[in-house]
Amino acid sequence: MKRRAFITLLGGAAAGVPFAAIAQQAGKIPVVGILWHAGTAQEEGPNFTAVIEGFKALGYVDGQNIRFEHRFPNETPERFRSMAAELVSMRVDVLLSVGVTAAPYARSATSTIPIVFTLVADPVASKLVDSLARPGGNATGLTLFAAELGAKRLELLKEAIPGLSRVGLLINPNTSFSRPYVEESKAAAAKLGLTLQTFEARALDELPPAFDMAAKAGVQAISITPEGVFYQGRAVIAKLALSRGVATCVWSKETFEPGAFMAYGPDVLEILRRAAVFVDKILKGAKPADLPVEEPTRFQLLIGLKTAKAIGITVPPTLLLRADEVIE
Questions:
Q1: Is residue 239 packed enough to be buried (19+ CB in 10 Å), middle (13-18) or exposed (0-12)?
Q2: 72: DSSP letter
Q3: Which CATH superfamily is domain 3-144+267-290 in?
Q4: Are 154 and 223 in contact (CB under 8 A)?
Q5: What is the pTM of this model?
Q6: In the record, which residues are listed under signal peptide (predicted)?
Q7: Which of 148, 186, 290, 308 stands the most exposed, by the fewest C-beta atoms within 10 Å?
Q8: Quick one: pLDDT band at residue 27, thresholds 50, 70, 90?
Q9: Could you tell me which residue, 19 or 127, shows the higher pLDDT?
Q10: Mean of the pLDDT values across residues 181-197?
Q11: C-alpha of 231 from chain center
Q12: Phi, psi of 27 (to 5 degrees)
């Protein structure tokens, strides 16, 4: 058992009565509104499962000692806005946002209901919190630490692909996170002696044209920004890249598994499971302003040899030895 989980259970035993029992005695089951980014629970896939697993590990069961109100905006700005407002109007006890896109809408919808955000790249720059150590206001949560990893992904691509000179960056310009990611990647590309070109896709149907443009520009590899539309289209992106002979570097195991060439980033599912810990603390009386934002500390390097072979890349053995997982 993890140390944090053990301490949580020990604290509950010492108190004599678990929080769930207290809530039931008071005649009120806490309600958690969850603002997702995809269109359905099925589209969220492992993300949805991880969030629910996190609550179950703490003893929460939907309909028994907690109630979840799920909303699926399907990456549509108007739906994000209206669904966040709907959850706020229900006076949920905590508003949980999943993904970089959902967090700003949750924050704009309320300044009083506690918010727990997840997978946010830079919560300070996004004005979700005052600082990581002292969030202030009504929001806290877990960061993806994504912008700072853009440089590392380009560095790994250059090491993996002999003769790499032209790289692409796939972004969704509708997300507030795109600009810092572009700036970070441009600076890194210049230091690495790479020519970087940005390609845009706001929706799934814009992915094929983006990859057509990349192939026409002679791009050898594309770094995919961590973003909701690209998570939805992870299998499509893998197929498009393979058919055009372009290597992709994604940000998580879930976006890697459909057939990407490489992934580098934190364990996204573990971050999502941890969200329940923040919600639990708030339901027990903690204030978001006093809960420091949590950053990932461990990162995974995944390499797909099957994909590499299909697009004619021979990955250096030294890099393979450093990988956490290699798919033959």
A1: middle
A2: -
A3: Response regulator (3.40.50.2300)
A4: yes
A5: 0.84
A6: 1-20
A7: 290
A8: low
A9: 127
A10: 95
A11: 9
A12: 80, 15
Token code pair at residue 72 = 């699926």
Residue 178 pLDDT class (50, 70, 90 cuts): confident
What residues form DSSP beta bridges with 325? 302
**Structural Rg of the chain based on CA atoms:** 21
Q: pLDDT tens for residues 306-325? A: 999 999 999 999 999 999 99
B/e letters for 114-123, b = 16+ CB within 10 Å, e = fewer, are: bbbbbbbbbb
Q: Per-residue pLDDT for 105 more than 60?
A: yes
Backbone φ and ψ for 115, nearest 5 degrees, come out as -120, 135
Look at phi and psi of residue 40 and say left if phi exceeds 0, alpha if psi is from -120 to 50, else beta.
beta
The ranges of the chain annotated as CATH 3.40.50.2300 are 3-144+267-290, 147-266+299-327
Question: CATH class for domain 147-266+299-327?
Answer: alpha beta
